[in-house]
Give the backbone structure.
Amino acid sequence: MKQAKPEAEEPASQRIDRRIRELGGWRGDTLARMRTLIRKSDSGIVEEWKWNNPVWSQNGIVCTGEAYKSAVKLTFAHGAALPDPAGLFNSSLDGNTRRAIDIREGETVDAAAFQTLIRAAVARNAPPEKQPVKLLSGGNPQIAKADGDAPVQEYIVAMPGWKSDIGRRIDAIVVGAVPNVLKAVRWNSPFYGVEGRGWFLSTHCLTKYVKATFFAGLSLKPIPPGGTEKSKDARWIDIFEDDAFDEKQFASWVKQAAALPGWVP
């Protein structure tokens, strides 16, 4: 007769299968359902068996799955650091690092919100070079101060939704109009300038629009519509999602602005 492998040698996925069968009933069904959601959330998640419980990991523990008499508990190793807009965490709320979701008989968890939480935990565990860019107020990407095209492209890629396309279009217009343009990120905003003349343009993400500011905007023809007397020489345009972005006019402003003395911090 073929003997079963000792528990220590049994693959984690098989051990989790066995735990689900052993639990049976609503607890087995719940653990199986949540396991499926976890595995579908990110293909890189690895199943492990630790502390006599299922563990899901990627670059560190994402969460564990524990079964008690009255609840199936999913404990997130760094749950206190994760955004939880759906309010799924309902246990271990006083912990310094952990947070948990207790699921009782007859209860269900919002699948989409749970998978978003799993992905956030995976992102939290990623190495520093793979960490997602943090979005500040208004969805503005937080990019470290740096010179060159690379940080500007990092900013553009991180611009949320339709704003990223506007960022790419602005960048392409500037490069086409000013062949030797200088680029940098300052104060979490892309800057464009000319050697010896200073910066002539900056862009910035806000909640509902992208702002493109010409530092010598008052000298442009026609004058960009945004600005007041308190803005001094600066003038800008606010580009909304449904706006018809006039690229020809924008290119004209860029060429004019690049030929003028710019802003020197």
Summary: The CA atoms of residues 149 and 166 lie 17 Å apart.
